[in-house]
Amino acid sequence: MRLTERLTARTLLLGGVMVVMLSLFVGVEQDPDFWWHLRIGRWMVENGGLPSHDIFTFTVPGHVWTDHEYLTEILMWLIYSAAGLAVLCIVFGLITWAGFYLIYRQVRHQPFVVVGVGLAIGAIAGAPIWGPRAQMITFALSCLELYWIQGYLSGRSRSLRFFPLVMVLWANLHGGWVIGFVWLGVALVAELAAYLWDRSNPAHWMHLRFLAIITGVSVVAVAATPHLLSLYPYPFQTQGSVAQQRLIVEWFSPDFHDIYLRPFEAMVFLLIAGFALRRPSLYEFLLTMIALFLALQSVRNVVLFIAAATPVMINTYAEFWKAIARDRKWNLTIPPRPLFAITTAIALVIIAGATLIHIASVITPDKQHEVDRTTYPVAAADWLAAHPEVGTRMYNQYGWGGYLAYRFYPQPNRKVFIFGEAALMGDSLLNQYEDVQTLRSDWKQVLDQYKVDYVVYNKGEALANVLATQSDWELVYQDKVAVIYVRKT
Fold first, then answer.
1. What is the pTM of this model?
2. CA separation (Å) from 155 to 160, 204, 206, 420?
């Protein structure tokens, strides 16, 4: 194919969108769980094994640790130690980008304008969640699985037969592997309904058998981890935890009063409106409804909605577009022109250059340092490092536990009260933490029970303000972010 036939309006729009969206995926680190992921990854590399019990807290050291994302944490530490945080942010951005490339592969034969706009909508809708997080691995692998399912159901590909191997990798990388069975379950239900509706069509029975076999083999494949059978109940323990659902922000339902969730809200409306224009297949309908249910249940599941619903939205509007074009006899084919090809090449180079400059300006050490100082108790930790004699048992803000563990492990008097591995902490400790955080009647008893003698907490929050009124607590440090109170002896 000649260069003029490649550098078309399609190439300009889709290439531009795919390049620019990378700037949404690569940014500074802002996930409070990032630091303890990094620290436990370092621990595993240094010790040559997985943690069997909690090592960061003094509150639940006996709790068994089923580290469902150990391989990701090891890789994070290896990349961080070898190349730095900026490179690690780029790697996770590319993982997210790979997921969108797989979405594009599902819809690549549709009108390019609809494809480009649909991909952009999906990328913007998930903008608050993208970042260097282990969850991006589940997003990308979901996109791969959905791409293979779509290829199999449409009769174009049997790559889905390799999915059990993907599940082996997935189960070692992130606890979100369970969503892989949700997508398989949707396909199974859709094909079962189609078979019961039309038993004369042998394709549905063949699909059912194949999907059932793949699902069964994938269930066995999950055990191919160091945790063996103990990994199976882990996702259900997390979903069944009332304390996690009530306490942890990313498990809350989306609050559409938040401006940053408006693009997601708009995508939901666009998708539902599209169903009025073109009736979806049963598989598409079930997939969209399950993904929407998950997203409305928890804001962290918005990325799963984007993985499942973006191709459906694009296909819906693409078919409507093509129907109008046929009725009105539009000729949307643009013949290749040498001048336009040159213009396209120049434009893409400019877009790529501008995107790279933007990314480079965002992930600088100075920007990351500034974000860290306003997000985490960096200066307070510096003060604690300069005063190693202060305190023996800490009560800390939940989201800061990972950062403090990263800074101070294995110092015994700097072990944290709680950190972001909520399943490891257990509902009992989460509830006790909330009792103190919300100043319930037993908040002092909880601190006494665990012999807490210093508190590292957000400045201006209720607990910090109340400690200022207590005669047995003394303020020893404060800045714009954090305060440190020490119990008087």
1. 0.93
2. 11, 11, 11, 44
